[in-house]
Amino acid sequence: MSTRDTGRLSGPRHGSGTWEGLGPVIIVLVAVHIAALLFWIVSLHDFKAQGRHQAALIARSATTHRRSSMSPTASARPLRLLHACACRKAVAAAGLPGARHARPSAAAATTAATTAALRQLHQRPRRVSSSASAAAEPAVAPSASSSAAAAVEEPHISVLLTEVLAAFEGCSVRRYVDGTLGAAGHATAMLRKHPEMESLVGFDLDPTAHQLAAARLAAAGATVVPVAVSAVGARASFEAPVDSSSSSSSSSRIEGRGPTAFIVRSNFGRMQAVLQQLPLGSGTADGSSSNDTSGSGGGVDAILLDLGVSSMQVDTADRGFSFMKDGPLDMRMDPGAPLSAEGAVNSWSEAELGRVIKEYGEERHWRAIARRIVEARESQAITTTQQLVRAIGSIGGGGAGARKSGRRGAGGGDAKYKHPATRTFQALRIAVNAELQSVAQALPDAIDCLAPGGRLAVITFHSLEDRIVKWAFRRAAGMAPSDEQLPSYCLPFEEASVRILTRRPVTPSEDEQRANVRCRSAKLRVVQKL
Question: What per-residue confidence (pLDDT) applies to 28?
Answer without folding.
Answer: 85
